[in-house]
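Exercise 7b. Backbone tokens:
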């Protein structure tokens, strides 16, 4: 069953239109028809179709006019049907966002398979639209708060990068806001009306990475009861955000390199190669260059990913941003918990500015929300601050610590605060459980 997906057939050949209608209605699709371009352009203004079958050569005009009208609407998938094998026409149609291009006479099985794949893409994209909509208002350059010169330089470069189509690598410690910056770049780019598809590379098991990224055909493996388009196809004409790209296993790194070089994707157990138009933004909290030097990351993939590099400085390197960020989080927390707006006393602000914030902006936000949850009053005094902030030994007055030491201490602190609950600790740290297990082993952390 196809859940009564509604398909619009735009075709002036009455016999072909009737044939298509009968074939599709037997598959439980809901069908609407338009024999002319004028009628089709009128109906698309008021109705969103899961799919449109479009003949480009119509008696009252060229079907590309309809493509221009609907190209900004993610939910309108279009399959072009043409009476000629015109390569230039096919390429132009694909550039305009068409899902596929079929030549008459149309093979029934190929038609049904193509329709099913197009509808699968729609269903898989539906899960991302709510996330995309909720993030759009909060993920613009204007919503990124900063006063520091360091962040001003980053945002200036990111705004320029948004206008290009080159691959971007965002580097920064955990909690610095790499994902927020990636969404801001996408929402300022020419692709802003198309999807941005996030992928947490650290959370995908190695044996599922290929099928998750590039898709699989029905029956490709046990349990594959239907085909899956893969994250790259979902991001076609838009952006894919590869978070923690350094965690990808090397077996997948080589396949990713091929996709980035050719723009072509092949699903698991499929012979069909699809050419995609996807802008790639990657992020890592580790130095990919160091990973290249130690053999953990492919050098050729590194240079392909790092066409533009953005480095978000840690919060301890830009203390002038702490007060501004904290004030914003205080307003959000007050709204969330239905409390009066709380402000920082000068003494509390001094402690918070001196603290080294190993968890960066994420740790600052969590700290502010925790304080507002329990505070009785409208001003935060030093007594309201966590012990870790009041402890001058962590305030950055001693010898400068390495990033490794800071990361180790922070992970140990979070583990102890959660009673070594791996799931809770991983969530607070913003990493996957497997990544946390690896770090516990690497740092030899114990209760």
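Sequence design result:
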């Amino acid at each position: 069953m196809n859940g009564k997906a509604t398909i619009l057939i735009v075709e002036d050949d009455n016999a072909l239109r009737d044939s298509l209608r009968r074939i599709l209605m037997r598959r439980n699709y809901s069908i609407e028809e338009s024999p002319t371009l004028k009628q089709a352009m009128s109906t698309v203004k008021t109705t969103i179709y899961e799919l449109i079958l479009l003949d480009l050569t119509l008696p009252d005009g060229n079907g590309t006019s309809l493509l221009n009208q609907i190209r900004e609407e993610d939910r309108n998938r279009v399959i072009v049907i043409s009476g000629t094998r015109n390569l230039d026409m096919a390429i132009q149609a694909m550039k305009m966002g068409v899902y596929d291009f079929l030549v008459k006479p149309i093979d029934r099985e190929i038609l049904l398979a193509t329709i099913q794949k197009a509808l699968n893409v729609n269903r898989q994209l539906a899960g991302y639209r709510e996330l995309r909509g909720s993030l759009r208002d909060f993920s613009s350059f204007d919503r990124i708060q900063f006063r520091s010169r360091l962040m001003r330089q980053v945002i200036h470069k990111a705004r320029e990068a948004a206008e290009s189509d080159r691959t971007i690598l965002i580097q920064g410690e955990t909690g610095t806001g790499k994902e927020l910056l990636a969404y801001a770049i996408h929402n300022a780019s020419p692709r802003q009306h198309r999807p941005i598809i996030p992928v947490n590379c650290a959370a995908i098991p190695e044996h599922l990475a290929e099928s998750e990224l590039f898709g699989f055909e029905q029956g490709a493996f046990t349990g594959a009861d239907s085909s899956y388009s893969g994250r790259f196809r979902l991001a076609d004409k838009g952006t894919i955000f590869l978070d923690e790209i350094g965690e990808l296993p090397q077996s997948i790194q080589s396949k990713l390199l091929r996709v980035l070089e050719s723009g072509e994707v092949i699903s698991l157990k499929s012979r069909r190669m699809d050419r995609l138009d996807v802008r790639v933004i990657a992020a890592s909290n580790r130095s990919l260059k160091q990973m290249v030097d130690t053999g953990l990351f492919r050098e050729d993939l590194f240079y392909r990913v790092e066409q533009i590099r953005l480095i978000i400085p840690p919060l301890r390197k830009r203390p002038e941003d702490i007060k501004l960020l904290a004030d914003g989080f205080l307003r959000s927390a007050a709204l969330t918990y239905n409390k009066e707006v709380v402000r920082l006393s000068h003494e509390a602000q001094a402690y918070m500015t001196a603290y080294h914030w190993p968890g960066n902006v994420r740790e600052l936000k969590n700290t502010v929300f925790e304080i507002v949850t329990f505070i009785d009053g409208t001003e935060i005094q030093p007594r309201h601050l966590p012990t870790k902030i009041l402890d001058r030994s962590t305030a950055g007055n001693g010898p400068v610590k390495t990033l490794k030491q800071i990361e180790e201490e922070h992970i140990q602190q979070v583990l102890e605060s959660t009673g070594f609950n791996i799931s809770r600790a991983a969530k607070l740290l913003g990493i996957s459980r497997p990544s946390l297990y690896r770090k516990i082993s690497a740092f030899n952390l114990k209760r």
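Instructor comment: The first strand starts at residue 6 and ends at 10. The first helix runs from residue 14 to 26.
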